[in-house]
């Protein structure tokens, strides 16, 4: 996964989802990263959560359980 800052990711997300609010997306991403850093695990398989997917996907999960894919090389993960 490519690691990018929360702000950078939020801007990309808004480009694809122009009806969403930038501040709201940033705060959801921050929350998700904080949960990840404090040890939150995927609600399906118990692996470490994918902060981006958990912030925008609606449930606490890892990359594989949220997307159904194993190759995460073209996706992003955010950090604080
Ligand atoms: Zn999982």
From TrEMBL:
Tell me the protein's name.
Uncharacterized protein
Taxonomic placement: Bacteria, Bacillati, Bacillota, Clostridia, Eubacteriales
